[in-house]
Amino acid sequence: MIELLAAKKAFKENLVFEDASVQLHRGTYYTLTGPNGSGKSTLMKCLLQQEELTEGQMLLNGAPVKSSSRPFRTQVFGINDAIGWLPGVTVGQHLEMMARAATEINEALGTDPENLYSPREALEELGVPQAYDRQPYTLSSGQEQRSRLASLLVRPARYYFLDEPEKRLDSAGVQWITEWVDWRVTDLGDMVCIATHDPLLNEIAGTVNLRFPLNQEESRA
Ligand SMILES: Nc1ncnc2c1ncn2[C@@H]1O[C@H](COP(=O)(O)OP(=O)(O)OP(=O)(O)O)[C@@H](O)[C@H]1O
């Protein structure tokens, strides 16, 4: 379980959230929704340890989290705008780097290696096999996003945080995300948390919706 305890985040005088306490359980699908600027991406960055909380604590299975800690790096994975592409490196080379780490992570997680895709298989599954030999900037924006999503098949985790993964995708791409969520949460018992403006991603059976501003009552689809 991932917990935020009395979390506060402010950028100087701009208070984004405070006294936010959230529990995120495995085997559950969460959505973060709310108006533009309400703090979804900021919370995601805090959960991915890309931003520090101003106050409060994050716990992973009861232990305080540090970005450098092995349990955190093993169990938690996410995609957001803060994660970029390296210049001069193809999509395939990025995914091959992830695949090398994936074997060790998979052993640490004790998960079934059958569920891991090779980079080529993952890009094939996402409908962008040509991306393997291409640099990301030569792809369409939707193809680039599909290439990012391919990393979800290459790199195993127990807790996934995705910030607006539907951005730039066509309807088939969004549908793919719903099926991936169902696989990870229902079949494999992982936790997926998605910040989204897309109604379809909020209608997956069992969705627990956390609405911003935080600490309002959650609702379940
Ligand atoms: N690095 C930063 N420095 C200063 N202020 C920031 C920073 N990042 C975000 N903010 C501010 O924090 C607030 C929340 O922004 P955030 O991006 O988390 O909102 P959001 O709910 O994800 O919005 P959207 O739906 O538009 O993606 C905004 O007022 C924003 O200006």
Automatic annotation (TrEMBL):
tRNA processing as UniProt keyword: no
ABC transporter domain residues: 2-213
Example GO molecular function: ATP binding
Would the keyword Nucleotide-binding turn up in this protein's UniProt record? yes
In which domain of life is the source organism classified? Answer: Bacteria
Q: Where are the transmembrane segments?
A: none
Q: Fetch the SMART domains from UniProt.
A: AAA (SM00382)
Q: Please name the InterPro entries in this protein's record.
A: AAA+_ATPase (IPR003593), ABC_transporter-like_ATP-bd (IPR003439), P-loop_NTPase (IPR027417)
Keywords in alphabetical order? ATP-binding, Nucleotide-binding
What is the name of the protein in this document?
ABC transporter ATP-binding protein
